[in-house]
Amino acid sequence: MTVRALRIAARAELLSLLVLLANLVTVHLPAVSSLAGPVHGCAYLLVVVLVFRTPGASGAAKGCALLPGVGGLLAFRSLGRPPARA
To answer: Which domain holds residue 17?
Structure first.
């Protein structure tokens, strides 16, 4: 896994969710939903796959990756930290 791919996917996931929510509370154009919905879904799945395939990813990072919207950024942040000492 490259860190760059995870960062891009996490940002795309959050941005597409924000576009969907903004569309929902404003004009609710079907074309915007038709474009942003699949983009959000693909970015979400990519984040989950990238985090779960990362060697040494903690359970917290994997759990964060499963959260839609902000989970990718939280997982990215969690992967950048050294493991907590017991």
So the answer is: 3-79
**Does 51 map to a domain?**
yes
What integer pLDDT is reported at residue 3 of this predicted model?
A: 85
Contacts of 29 (CB under 8 A, 6+ apart): 23
Domain count within the chain: 1
pTM to 2 decimals?
A: 0.87
Does residue 30 sit in helix, strand or coil? helix
pLDDT digits (tens, 9 = 90+) for 48-64: 999 999 998 999 999 99
Residue 7 belongs to a domain: yes
